[in-house]
Write a structure and sequence with these properties.
The protein contains 8 helices and 6 strands; from the N terminus they run βαβαααββαββααα. It is of the alpha/beta class. The protein has a two-stranded parallel sheet with strand order 1-2. It starts with a strand and ends in a 7-residue tail after the last helix. Helix content is about 45%, strand content about 15%.
């Protein structure tokens, strides 16, 4: 029987947590399915609330305390940065609706190359953006002497750029908007009152 290792990350805040209970059931179901296929599962489960202080310290200092570093090494996942997520959080949810978007990401090694499809693309799907089917990932090796091992970075960029250009060409020009109209930066139908906790009577 072969073996697979699963990392379970639960972000529930209470104890006991419904998020953790769901995670445990999902893990158990997955383990059953894999067992029926002759694959044994071993799992590492992490409750992020146990690492809350370490996460904050990591954000402030740039260094992970030992317990957090161990968890990060076990999980080993890559995604978009917290800074990028903070930027997305302040966007109006409809700001990118139907907008052609070209996705790109960089990382140290090619093993992060799926970050575009498993982390970034779903985010832009949630925002209803029109993400191009070709994303561009560049590892450190794409900038150095070994860059010709895969399709050169310039070729990948050119292919993705053609898709974006075609999508833009098919799209009607956006109507110009008054940059001083609150709807421009707050969202249609919103005002500064929404930023202050809502308007009276709402």
């Amino acid at each position: 029987m072969s073996e697979r290792r699963i990392a379970v990350v639960s972000a529930g805040l209470s104890n006991p947590s419904s998020t953790r209970m769901l995670a445990d059931r999902m893990l158990a179901a997955t383990a059953r399915e894999l067992s029926a296929r002759g694959i044994e599962v071993s799992a590492d489960t992490f409750e992020l609330r146990d690492y809350a202080h370490d996460l904050t310290n990591n954000l402030l200092t740039g260094f992970a305390p030992p317990a957090l570093e161990s968890a990060l090494n076990t999980v080993f996942a890559t995604s978009y940065s917290g800074l990028f997520k903070s930027f997305v959080d302040v966007l109006d949810p409809d700001a990118l609706r139907g907008t052609p978007v070209l996705l790109g990401a960089t990382a140290g090694t090619p093993r992060h190359s799926l970050a575009i499809d498993y982390a970034i693309r779903p985010l832009f799907a949630y925002l209803h953006a029109d993400a191009m089917s070709t994303g561009v990932f560049a590892a450190s090796s794409d900038w150095g002497a070994a860059a010709d091992q895969v399709a050169p970075l310039s070729e990948r960029i050119d292919k993705a750029a053609r898709e974006l250009a075609d999508a833009i060409a098919r799209r009607d020009p956006a109507a110009s908007r008054d940059p001083f109209d609150p709807a421009h930066y707050l969202g249609e139908g919103k005002s500064f009152g929404h930023l202050l906790g809502g308007l009276a009577g709402e």
